[in-house]
Amino acid sequence: MSRSQNILFTPLRVGAAEIANRFVRSATHEFMAEDDGRPTARQAEVFRRLAEGEVGLIVTGHAYVHPLGKASLRQTGIYDDRFIAPLSRLASAVRGTRSKIFIQIAHAGRQSKKRLCGGTPAAPSAVYDPSSKVQPREMTAEDVQETIGDFVRAARRAQAAGFDGVQIHAAHGYLLSSFISPHTNRRTDSWGGSVEDRARILVEIVGGIKQACGRDFPLMIKKNSTDFLPTGLALEDAVATARILQAEGLDAVEVSGGMAESGRGSVWTGLRVEEDEGYFVENAARFKAKLDIPVSGLGGNRTLAVMERFVRQGRADMISLSRPLIRDPFLVRKFRLGEAVKSACLSCNKCFNPRGISCGDLKRPNPRS
Ligand SMILES: Cc1cc2nc3c(=O)[nH]c(=O)nc-3n(C[C@H](O)[C@H](O)[C@H](O)COP(=O)(O)O)c2cc1C
Description:
By secondary structure, this protein is of the alpha/beta class. The protein has eleven helices and 13 strands. 54% of the residues are buried. Flavin mononucleotide binds next to strand 4 and helix 10. The site of flavin mononucleotide has 24 residues, from strand 4 and helix 10.
């Protein structure tokens, strides 16, 4: 089959945004922002290169919507209007190209630490996290309303900064994912209990963003499909939540999984054979079967033919990549030109460089990152 017939190189709409091909750069914390969260020229350069590499949809690393929701050092902030100007330099790094750029907005919840967020981490319920030894405090109903406002204001800032859309981070055990999970959400008020009540905070955020930014402003979610905890999120509940959000105007879903406490995260190592690839794609297929909006399949996607099969077989509409694009930001273009058929990424996770993402397997440091 010629490259031009490959479904991965056909366009797709995410709400009002036309995405030139099916490749998504899954949100990847760059570890490159200033201490107060101001993004830097190094990040703009990362996005410029991904656009040059023809990634259809670039999702930035997670940006925290409130100082209490900071997850990591050198993380981008979006919690104040003063970030609009520096954020606009990230958005303009891809302007004039065929790539679109969404910013991922996030709150770390109980997966933050006092030294990062300056207070006691907040969570739906005061459920101790044995992995980090954090004892969070239960959010009041007022805190929940404030947090909804934080996400909506963050989306407005993203729009003002010129991003093409926003991705809400509701995966990996962070705050919004912990609201959906019955393990971490044990509330007995209207924000906990049934799947509808656990999803309520997301319903309010999606509705609030659509109202503040307009129905046409594209809105995607990255969602856990499982927490890998017996008392955690069930796949059927995860799919049901996505259906509820679709009815609120959500435009696309990226399906992930894992959380710190379960000891099983979202960034798996030891992927050796093609059967290991697309480790959340089967779950994505379960979402796709029940949704009308595009679904992106994620986790260890490495081989072009395998990715194409996932989309052709209707298990996903888009293919998300994180580590392969740290290894080589030009991978998608090389796929299109027939210069590569597989990512050289070893899934070794040496790219988690706290001074700025770079492929640890490539011995020479990336000169621009
Ligand atoms: C260095 C690094 C940073 C990441 N940062 C984020 C992030 O900010 N938000 C997020 O949702 N996922 C984040 N992830 C997870 C990836 O988006 C992706 O879900 C995961 O790595 C699996 O995809 P892959 O096998 O293509 O790398 C990160 C992964 C890596 C390797």
